[in-house]
């Protein structure tokens, strides 16, 4: 199983940044790094990057590399933007090419659903677009937009390493499920979901994170507060 991860754009890409200067590539590359580490915990998986920290790789070079390697899956990771000033546009949207087999759409739906569930951001849907990386690839290709750099609250999330790891975990979980990947023995890959317990009466609790480092917990709390939630830290 060969997978190529594409951190969209590059350090030198003009215009792809938040109003206060965060470059999109800063987010994209870290999510790709986290995703690569997680995918390498699965058996018989080879992970490649279409991007480079040294230069802004042209789109044709990215898709040519994927096609030459004959990878089985292409995932392009992005952060969204609406205009160049702060505004209320928000949420996650995922893209496939209009002319793609059903299995590509199914992969996109799994990635999208996992991102929505994991991040709690607005669901903008799975959409179709004629993007180069979706059109010129010979394998299932999906492009995920993981929040808006032009939304102040989401820009703060996009800066958070906790949020970046959350996006990577959501993407990897979807890829692993779609391609039936098997975790290596004693690896740190995401375990399968436990069976659903029988219905019980009582109090039901929802937890969005568990951390050994309090700093990471406080970082997530701050990000959630900026989105209008009222989270709290509970120490067991």
Rounded radius of gyration (Å): 18 Å
Largest sheet strand order: 2-1-3-6-4-5
- How far apart lie the N and C ends? 40 Å
CATH topology of the largest domain: Aminopeptidase
The proportion of residues in beta strands is: 15-25%
CATH architecture of the largest domain: 3-Layer(aba) Sandwich
How many beta strands in the DSSP annotation? Answer: 6
The percent range for helix content is 25-40%
Unreliable spans are 189-198
- Domains, number: 2
Q: What is the level 1 CATH name of the largest domain?
A: Alpha Beta
Average pLDDT confidence is 88
The H-level CATH homologous superfamily of the largest domain, spelled out, is Zn-dependent exopeptidases
Number of helices: 7
**Main beta sheet strand tally, sense and closure:** 6 strands, mixed
Pfam family, one: Amidase_3
EC number: 3.5.1.28
Domain SPOR: 198-236
InterPro entries: MurNAc-LAA_cat, N-acetylmuramoyl_amidase_3, SPOR-like_dom, SPOR-like_sf
